[in-house]
């Protein structure tokens, strides 16, 4: 079921629900670039029939209106508004890649609403003290982020051109990411169900424009608007040790600072290993407080 929710400042947020309407609610925060389609594959949804999944397009993606200059912290406001519109009580949040800091923002800024949070392959804040932010990162990713920081106009033009290529052929994004993917990542994305989900996600993410992608990157590379050390809710922090898009140093930095963290470092996988970890992550998110992740 797809909803168009109007925020207090007049923007439209496109929200999609699936799963059990009476189940445990989990709000999904998609990767960068991404949209409401691209967090949990359908076979994982089917295997978790007692979860109410709520996913939405962040501003500028899909059918959601843009919010220029947004910060990572602004996701908490949008999630609070969609939760109110849908009549959610308490809920959990799950974010992957670029969506993971937005999930942490919800946990930090909505402590009375968020039960638990899962942050998979999360970058650390760009101003993280004692972290060499680019160490271990794929050269293509370093080049992109450096351009965004030093020449935002040229970066915006490049993303617009890439978005046009993706609209013609969504597989172009996987081609661009190729040097940052491990062998295990390539095996994961080659699975028909996962590949289909990713291509559908990329197509929808940039269908109208590249603004969501641009604003996500700029938000991730500037002040987040909250301190991860202020997250008081239980957090499952998952990382593939071979990830070169979000290097393991970011995981270690966050794990050392989030108070109620459950760090899970998977040695034999990279970024997309998060998709294989989802069943256990979802079990933890929706379990009673006394239950722990195996």
Describe the structure.
- By secondary structure, the chain is α/β, with parallel strands linked by helices.
- It has eleven helices and eight strands.
- It has helices at residues 42-46, 74-86, 100-109, 139-150, 152-168, 171-176, 183-190, 192-205, 211-220, 248-257, 273-286; strands at 2-6, 12-19, 24-29, 51-56, 91-96, 114-120, 235-240, 261-266.
- An eight-stranded mixed β-sheet has the order 1-2-4-3-5-6-7-8, with helices on both faces.
- The protein is globular.
Write a brief structural summary.
The protein is an alpha/beta fold and 294 residues long. The protein contains 11 helices and 8 strands. The chain has an 8-stranded mixed sheet, with helices on both faces.
From the alpha carbons, calculate the radius of gyration and give it in angstroms: 17 Å
Rounded to the nearest angstrom, the distance between the terminal CA atoms is 33 Å
Give the spatial strand order of the biggest sheet. Answer: 1-2-4-3-5-6-7-8
Instruction: Sketch the topology as an H/E string, one letter per element.
Output: EEEHEHEHEHHHHHHEHEH
Unreliably modeled segments:
none
For the secondary structure, the number of strands is 8
What shape does the CA trace take? globular
Give the averaged pLDDT, no decimals. Answer: 92
Largest sheet: 8 strands, mixed
Number of helices: 11
**Structural class, judged by helices and strands?**
alpha/beta
Strand content: 15-25%
- Helix content estimate: 40-55%
